[in-house]
Amino acid sequence: MNEAIETVEAVIWGAVISFGILAALTAYIVTALGYWTAVFAVWAGRGLAGYIRYRRSLPARRAALAAERQHTAQQWQQRARKTAPRITTRPGTNQDALDTCNGIWNASTREETP
């Protein structure tokens, strides 16, 4: 009789310990899943908030880029006006050299290769 009671007692303690281990593992898994769910939620929320901020700022960014392009184009136009070459047709000028080069180029024989 003692042996039967000890056997039942051992089975009960085994079940209690097994249940405790399963409960601890379940708690660990639930905690881990909750943690990673929260990490994912924070990551997704930040990404979504960043995208919304980006989309809201697009008109201002585009306007700033357009203004910067306009300013740069005006600067280049001003520089081009300041440094534009003055070509005249007097002998010894750039136009005379250009005419000479054109004449040489047009007079030389060139083979055209396909």
Number of domains: 1
Radius of gyration: 43 Å
- Helix/sheet category: mainly alpha
Number of helices: 2
Strand residues, percent: under 5%
Parts with pLDDT < 50 across at least 5 consecutive residues? none
Anisotropy-based shape: rod-shaped
Helix percentage range: over 70%
Mean pLDDT: 84
Number of strands: 0
SSE sequence, one letter per element: HH
Main sheet properties:
none
Termini, distance in Å?
Answer: 111 Å
Per-chain topology:
Elements lengths: L1 H82 L10 H14 L7
Description:
- The structure is a single chain.
- The chain is built from 2 helices and no strands.
- With 114 residues, the chain is mainly α.
- The chain has one domain.
- The termini are far apart.
Give a nutshell description of this structure.
By secondary structure, the chain is mainly α. It has two helices and no strands.
